[in-house]
Amino acid sequence: MHMADALLTPAVGGTMWVASAGAIACSSAVLRRERDDRKAPLMGVLGAFLFAAQMINFTIPGTGSSGHLSGGLLLAILLGPSAAFLTIASVLVVQAFFFADGGLLALGCNIFNLGIIPAFVVFPLVYRTVIGRDPSRARLGVGTMAAALATLQLGSLAVVLETASSGISSLPLADFLMLIQPIHLAIGLVEGGVTIAVLSFVRKARPELLQSGGGVDPSAGRSLVPVLLGFLVCAVVIAGGLSLYASGKPDGLEWAVAKVSGKAVLPAPEQGVHGALSWLQQKTAWFADYRFKGGKTEIGAPAKLDTGVTGIVGAVLTLLSILCAAFLLRKGSRGAVAPEA
Amino acid sequence: MSHHIIEVDRLRHVYPDGTEALRDISFSITHGESVAVIGANGAGKSTLLLHLNGHLSPSSGEIRIGHVPIDKATLPKVRRTVGMVFQDPDDQLFMPTVYEDVAFGPLNLGMSGEELERCVSGALQRVEAEHLARKAPYRLSTGEKKRVAIATVLSMTPDILVLDEPTNGLDPHARRQLITLLKEFHHSKIVTSHDLDMVLEVCERTIILNGGVVRADGPTVDIFRDDALLRECRLEKPLSMQGCPVCGGKGK
Amino acid sequence: MGSIAGALLDLKRLDQLAAGDSAVHRLDARAKVLATLVFIVSVISFGRYELSGLIPFFIFPAVLIAIGQLPAGYLAAKIILVCPFAVAVGIFNPFFDRGVLVHLGPLGISGGWISCVSIVVRTVLTVGAALILAAVTGFPAICRALERLGMPNVFVMQLLFLYRYLFVLTEEGGRASRARELRSFGRRGLNLSSYASLLGHLLLRTWQRAERIHMSMLARGYDGVMPVGHTSRFGVAEMLFLLIWSSLCILLRLNNGAQFIGTLVTGILS
Fold first, then answer.
1. CATH code of the region A5-246
2. Quick one: pLDDT band at residue B1, thresholds 50, 70, 90?
3. Nearest Cα to C132, choosing from C8, C9, C22, C18?
4. Domain ranges across chain A
């Protein structure tokens, strides 16, 4: 599932951007070191293959609904982590630009959730561990399924955490989790089943592909794992810190959670850190969730809000004048520019 | 001029799965010659072409381009000398715009600035595709794609052109355009095709491959007159040499 | 998903729009990419209950659409189609956040509704900005711009390859899938095993295509590094474009323009 710009604060979106950009830089460096010039076109067309694959549906047994492959794990197994990660990231970039899936700020989150997690977390830690050195058929199957489940669970968990730490949505954390995790269990089962089936087809038809893909990368992949795990830890720490900062007071989310569960689920931030952060927030205000003028105001009531009628009148007038200006501008420049066919 | 000569000397190729695709093939092509390599599906045409550009290496025997055998060391030079036009232009046009595609080879050769500009527009001019320069490949018709694919090779100023099924999938007009174009080139040419009417027009010499060996090698017209030979190799006389179905007039 | 086929048609259309020739089209892509980023970050940085402050930001998409001669209706339809997720999450806000924030005469509007509408407005603004960027710049130019802004060459080439073969592969996938549907006679016989072998075939063909592309690259002197020829440059116009938009975005972020106009007008009227 795709994260969306509108649900993110710049702090969270920016953190995830940094983590994803770092992973792209690392993976690019690994590939450049490998100097396997076959990989460039291969990754490109496999990215396009993912699009094509997502067009084709199948009926999920017993439910009557249909599903399709999302493919991150399949690519990791075929290409190795670095190449697979770049391929997935490129697909997400195209989706962000043209299919407007999510948006540009959310791109960092999406690359993290759908790229870093399958390629650098699940693939080395779950898939490699389960299949071991000399995998049997059964082990491959179990490994693939476990990896698919882990990918989807971690991915959706990341979506929840990113949404919650941004605090734009008021959906309580617990409810959000209960809503999203079971759905992704089902999606994970489907993804695992399809991945196993496609891989066994490839194994029958051209076994050398699976060797070349997975076999080229492991040494490089292994050495990269610690680096990326480091990244992951950093990202989580930064995200944690920034989310304290972004929603570091009992706001709608925590208030709602507290109301739903009867007690505060999220631990109240430490006074010292909290104080420092709120000072920072006052100073910068740019990334602030809302301004902090009144200190600890009433629960659920933001310190600053639109003052009724003036706000609405202003908004409508602004919108109208923008539209007028745009219309005039367009008429003005039409003479100079050949209209688009 | 000497490096326009291609010599194929007892070339043999066995694929890893044990299929023997080429068995002791020998022929040579001299400067400026236009030669068709024809044969049924699976006769070994594609395997032969892949050797000419060094994508496959012989199991035994060798290929010499201008008396220099193809090996790892000579490969870059050979690839510049032998311009290969692939069957599916979508495989050959991999850049975002036609211009960038045609410039890909020259850029790799280290050209830049005005020289690059001249080279690219020259190549596009040769195939009458200058107006397509800024277009994305997926917006071109098949005929345009084929012509641009040829331009991507021409921009490398090769001495020898190798074309795999150049008229495949073209409508009659685009096919005619392409044939006219091919006739204008003074490069040595090797063409594989099932379009024997095109072969008759473009190539003065024809080599028939059958089951991985050279079954016949001679002037195109002579070969196409030999009904028994054509039948044996799962081929058929070009339509333009058959009698007219309407007036009953005899072909050539 | 049939929607992908539709989305590809859209993609072709956006690509065609990018071939236009207006003052914005002619700008170096880097200026447009950076300005769009500043715009998005400014929009996103607003607090959850801010609504009127977001409205003046519509000036950015509006002006670009006007100067770039983009079809506004088409872009609007696209934007509306693509924000279901944000709306789906935002729609919960009114239920969990009922504290009344704004009084309009007898009508009390809860914070939940305001933040829900705010989410939708943000989505429209940010998604719109991305689409407009694509429509006035074109994907390849955006990639080149990102490369010159420091993105690794490997990843740029990956994006360009993907973009090039998107059309080829989805057409191939579409043909295969149609063939399967035609033979399943509406029986929904589109089960997992036929799906897997279809996908497997498509995967193998894709792989072979990659091998052929690699061959044709080698044939033209490719040695592992993609050559890049840059043409456009970052001149005065680009600098002005970037400066004006960035400062406007920052100004609008720090001062609520709508509130200002509203106060002015209601002040005069009363």
1. 1.10.1760.20
2. very low
3. C18
4. 5-246, 306-341
- Contact status, residue B26 vs residue B9, Cβ threshold 8 Å: yes
Q: Give the pLDDT of residue A226.
A: 52
CB pairs under 8 A between A and C: 418
Q: Which residues of A touch C200 (CB under 8 A)?
A: 197-198, 201-202, 205
In the predicted structure, residue A166 carries a pLDDT above the cut 50: yes
Q: Is the pLDDT of residue A341 over 50?
A: no
Contact A306 C259 (CB under 8 A): yes
| C155: nearest Cα among A120, A20, B102, A5 | A20
Q: Are strands A66-67 and B213-219 parallel, antiparallel or unpaired?
A: unpaired
Residue of B179 and A95 predicted with greater confidence: B179
Percent with pLDDT over 90 in chain B? 56
Instruction: Name C217's Cβ contacts closer than 8 Å, sequence gap at least 6.
Output: A37, A40, A41, B94, B104
Residue pLDDT, tens place only, B57-105: 899 999 998 888 888 888 888 888 899 999 999 999 998 889 989 999 9
Q: What is each CA distance from A184 to A150, A180, C191, in whole angstroms?
A: 10, 6, 21
Is the confidence at residue A301, as pLDDT, over 60? no
**What residues contact C134, with CB distance under 8 A and at least 6 apart?**
A97, A98, C14, C18, C142
User: What are the pLDDT digits (tens) for B45-64?
Assistant: 989 998 988 888 899 999 99
Q: What is the largest CA-CA distance in chain C?
A: 78
Q: Which CATH architecture has domain B2-241?
A: 3-Layer(aba) Sandwich (3.40)
Residue type, A2: H
Which chains reach chain B with 3 or more Cβ–Cβ distances below 8 angstroms? C
- Tell me the chain B residues in contact with residue C165 when contact means C-beta distances shorter than 8 Å: 94
Per the CB < 8 Å rule, is C227 touching B104? yes
Which of C69, C126, C259 minimises the CB distance to A105?
Answer: C126
CB contact under 8 A, B91 and C223: no
Q: What are the per-10-residue average pLDDT scores of chain C (270 residues)?
A: 62 82 87 90 80 86 89 84 68 72 69 80 85 88 87 88 88 82 67 80 89 88 73 81 89 79 76
Shortest Cα–Cα distance, A332 to chain C (Å): 9
Distance from first CA to last CA of chain A, Å, rounded?
A: 36
Q: Are C83 and A101 within 8 A, CB to CB?
A: no
Write out the residues of chain B at the interface with chain C, using a CB-CB cutoff of 8 A: 50, 53, 55, 76, 79-80, 83-84, 86, 88, 90-97, 100, 103-105, 107-109, 112, 116, 134, 136-139, 152-153, 156
A109-146 burial: b if 16+ Cβ within 10 Å, else e: bbbbbbbbbbbbbbbbebbbebbeeeeeeeebbbbbbb
> Which residues, 6 or more positions from B48, have their beta carbon under 8 angstroms from its beta carbon?
B8, B11, B22, B25, B37, B192, B209
Which residues touch B52 (CB under 8 Å, ≥6 apart)? Answer: B6, B63, B82, B84, B162, B190
Helix, strand, coil abundance in chain A, percent, nearest 5? 75, 0, 25
Higher pLDDT, B112 or A57: B112
Question: Dmax over Cα atoms in chain A, in whole Å?
Answer: 71
Between A242 and A64, the more confident residue is A64
Contacting subunits of C (3+ beta carbon pairs below 8 A): A, B
> Which token pair is B63?
């290929």
The residue of chain B with its CA nearest to that of C165 is B94
Query: What pLDDT is stored for residue C101 in this prediction?
Result: 67
Scanning A128-172, the segments in alpha helix (DSSP H) are 128-131, 137-166
Q: Smallest Cβ distance to C227: which of B84, B86, B107?
A: B107
Percent of chain A past pLDDT 70, that is, above it, reads 61
User: What's the one-letter identity of residue A106?
Assistant: A
pLDDT (average), residues A184-211: 84
Whether residue C105 lies within 8 A of chain B, CB to CB, comes out as: no
Q: C205: distance to nearest CA of chain B, Å?
A: 12
